[in-house]
Specification:
Shape: elongated
Oligomer: single chain
Structural class: mainly alpha
Helix content: over 70%
Strand content: under 5%
Radius of gyration: 27 Å
Amino acid sequence: MISKTTIIALIFIMCISILPVLAQNAPSLDSILNEGENYGNNGKPLTSAIMANHYYKTCTMEQSLVFDEEEMKILCGCNAAKMSEVLTVQDFQDLYKQNDKGRDARSRMLAFAYAPCMEHVIEKKVRHDCYSSSQMDDILRGGKLICDCVVDKFTGYVSRNAANIILTSTHYAPMSLNPLEHYFTTRNYNGQHKGYMRQCHYKFVYDRDNK
């Protein structure tokens, strides 16, 4: 007759032997956390295009302290279009993760999708700041030409310095997917704007007086 102690020992050995099998078939924490996420694919296999469309919808719902609704649609639309070309489905799913995969996905997104879109969304913000600047109080004529000039200078600057703007922003906000939000609130931007305003005003006066 098998003793009670022997039976308990056999059960223990059997449990130990099947643990590797259970562990192999167990879902990962990542799959559990992402289970049920609705990307608008209606049960279809996920693609980069589907993920980009989902990104656009969530991006345009975010509140911005810098851009209005129209500008956010432009920025999010441009990002989404380029992201569909350069990111995999896994990259999209990793974007908001605070680990190495997340950092790599964000770096790829910012470098190859966001950076080329930056210059297309700054005009309205820069022009508004130009017209509302106290420097315009003493400018009686040529306001539009001066602000056109300021916009052109910023467009060129952002195009040439997109990488620096992104690196500076992500230094302070590593999870950020919208570095311009940080850039437009810095003293660096305000100082540049004042400098460009002076340059463009001088150019207007010079051109006017030397026709």
